[in-house]
Amino acid sequence: xxxxxxxxxxxxxxxxxxxxxxxxxxxxxxxxxxxxxxxxxxxxxxxxxxxxxxxxxxxxxxxxxxxxxxxxxxxxxxxxxxxxxxxxxxxxxxxxxxxxxxxxxxxxxxxxxxxxxxxxxxxxxxxxxxxxxxxxxxxxxxxxxxxxxxxxxxxxxxxxxxxxxxxxxxxxxxxxxxxxxxxxxxxxxxxxxxxxxxxxxxxxxxxxxxxxxxxxxxxxxxxxxxxxxxxxxxxxxxxxxxxxxxxxxxxxxxxxxxxxxxxxxxxxxxxx
Length: 272
Fold this sequence. Notes:
The protein is α/β, with parallel strands linked by helices. The protein has helices at residues 2-8, 15-27, 31-37, 46-55, 60-64, 86-97, 113-121, 134-146, 190-193, 209-214, 237-246, and strands at residues 66-69, 72-75, 103-107, 126-131, 153-157, 172-177, 222-231, 249-255, 261-268. The longest helix is centred in the N-terminal third of the chain and has 13 residues, at 15-27.
């Protein structure tokens, strides 16, 4: 593992952690069991192949096929974004804004991490997750089954760029979304640009294209007293507030653990 960490240090700043996770996966044990009980084991032959994949910038989550989010494990593939700790701020904001649960809509559900976490945290809630990718919906359905939430989560094809996408959806106590918000010319780490779906990342020259399309459609999706919670890039609070104000929303911003703007809670203003 020391040698693997040395080599991985050329491509990541989490080299030792990555080496430990890959070794634990090769041995079929948890990382803690590896460190406590298995450090004298012979090196498994399969370990070298996993290290080689990581040296090619493939994310550890995709090598392992899973990622922890909000204390639960989610299956991931190259068809979905890897759930990130930043998005836990978005989930926490939704729980704050809609603590009773109710009916939830997740726009661009991907792995299902946002919707399924909310359903797990809010036992009285039910929800719908839409995505324009059938492959992503298959991953979300698998995660719903693994978490025992299939009965409360409906997953369907949907694309907010199409005029008919809201047909038969109804209204919701909470709409949550982590839309694409990366600028088209942004330089991303190879682990992101080469291994995660571009259609879930990029959103025009300023990263605002999807907010401009989605936010004006949200009022028709909200039940009385409902709210929307959107994840944003760290520099996008001001522009997203402006887009939201044009649609009649008041916006509150929530910051992530690093102190960066990360989520906006949208509520319709008086008379809207």
